[in-house]
Amino acid sequence: MPVSPPGPQQGDDFGLPPGVRDEYLLGARDQLGAISELAERLIAAGTDTAAIEALRRDAHRLRGSAGSFGFFTAPSPPIAAPSPHSDEPSDVPEVIVVEDDPALAELLTFGLEARGYRFLHFRNGREALDLLKTMDTHSAAQAPLLLLDVDLPALDGYSIFEELQQECPGKFRVVFTTVHGSETEQLRGLEAGAMDYMVKPISLRVALEKIRRWVGR
Fold first, then answer.
1. What digits encode the pLDDT tens for the residues 129-168?
2. Is residue 3 part of a domain?
3. Of 69, 86, 115, which marks where a domain is finished?
4. What's the whole-model pTM score?
5. d(Cα 4, Cα 37) in Å, to the nearest integer?
6. 105 and 65 co-located in one domain
7. Own/partner long-range contacts of 156-164 (Cβ < 8 Å, ≥24 apart)
8. Same domain for 100 and 63
9. Domain harbouring 104, CATH code
10. Is residue 82 a contact partner of residue 115, using CB atoms and an 8 Å limit?
11. Which residues on adjacent β-strands are paired with residue 71?
């Protein structure tokens, strides 16, 4: 299943850093190879539940990141110029990204850096929770924005959110990010107390505009 290169209308105007789209395509090729192997396992033994779960997870991940890199989406205008860096003395991150998909994480952190935000990135759910609980946010003008993926290794996003709510309520403003975009899933996140819910594939421009409104600059 080959991955087609972007058409002329996409090009570099999508606002991605140089070479990152090519890196994504190489990674997508590897993912597709893994999906093909899982499909062969299911053909041989349709009751292989581990293969079914792995296939579901890998397909969601591939779908979630493809749109964020401009594939299967309409073209849009270039990213606006970065905003000036804040003069605030605080070194507390304004935005914290907990995301295990390396391609999407790179896209988001590229956008945050370009806009001059103070940010941190975690890939592992358990490691993120341990550090979030001990993080000193008292010098921040407002609670940091936490972009929290639902499907994470070691500990899922809902479990992280629940423990943060129990041990340090109000310490972070949480927005869930996930490919599970059903009404039921979105209501689950909002009713748990999250500020919002972003469904993958995530448009970088839309994400940055929402972050600008949430952070206030």
1. 999 999 999 988 899 999 999 999 999 999 999 999 999 9
2. no
3. 69
4. 0.63
5. 20
6. no
7. 156/125, 157/98, 157/125, 158/188, 158/189, 158/192, 159/125, 160/98, 160/125, 160/128, 160/129, 160/132, 161/192, 161/193, 161/194, 162/192, 163/129, 163/133, 164/129, 164/132, 164/133
8. no
9. 3.40.50.2300
10. yes
11. none
